[in-house]
């Protein structure tokens, strides 16, 4: 296509008042005259990328506020407990199956444990986190140690 025709198309896009429509017009032109047209990612690759992003977010859960670059966050994480013990003050130190270690930061009295129950860590306000058991009203504040 001659250069004058390309300039006419560019001029047409430049006269569009709506910024979004103008951007779309320029994008279509760029795609039209590009040597390497964009290729769509296969559906499996997109799904695998989303799963990896979720795994990465789960690994950073509880410490992402220490790194402002983290983009995705999870509000509630179902966890599998590898071990639990109490410190000298009676606060729980919980090691998860994925290697994360969480420590209770407030005293709440009795907390019942059952190996068959489902436990979770949930995000609270101001970078706080709560450990609880599904179906129970009792939970306690925790912080991630490792």
Protein model, in words:
InterPro entries: UCP023238 (IPR016987). It is a single chain. With 146 residues, the chain is α+β, with helices and mostly antiparallel strands. It folds into two domains: 3-33, no CATH class; 44-144, no CATH class. The chain has three helices and seven strands. The chain has a seven-stranded antiparallel β-sheet with strand order 1-5-6-7-4-3-2, with no helix packed on it. Helix 1 runs antiparallel to helix 2. It is elongated and about 80 Å long. The model has no long low-confidence stretch (mean pLDDT 80).
What would a concise description of this structure say?
By secondary structure, the chain is an alpha+beta fold. The chain has helices at residues 3-14, 19-33, 43-60, and strands at 76-79, 81-86, 92-96, 101-104, 119-123, 129-133, 139-144.
Would you tell me the overall average pLDDT? 80
How much helical structure, as a percent, in the residues?
25-40%
Structurally, the number of domains stands at 2
Rg of Cα set = 26 Å
Shape: elongated
Reported for the largest beta sheet, the result is:
7 strands, antiparallel
């Amino acid at each position: 296509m001659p250069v004058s025709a390309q300039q006419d198309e560019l001029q047409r896009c430049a006269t569009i008042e709506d910024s979004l429509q103008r951007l779309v017009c320029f994008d279509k032109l760029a795609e039209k005259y590009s040597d390497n047209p964009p290729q769509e990612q296969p559906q499996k690759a997109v799904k695998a990328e989303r799963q990896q992003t979720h795994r990465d977010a789960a690994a950073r859960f509880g410490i992402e506020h220490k790194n402002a670059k983290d983009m995705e966050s999870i509000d509630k994480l179902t966890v599998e407990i590898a071990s639990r013990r109490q410190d000298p003050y009676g606060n729980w130190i919980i090691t998860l199956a994925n290697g994360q270690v969480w420590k209770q930061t407030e005293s709440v009295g009795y907390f019942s444990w059952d190996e068959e129950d489902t436990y979770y860590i949930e995000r609270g306000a101001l970078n706080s986190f709560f450990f609880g058991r599904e179906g129970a009203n009792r939970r306690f504040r925790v912080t991630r140690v490792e």
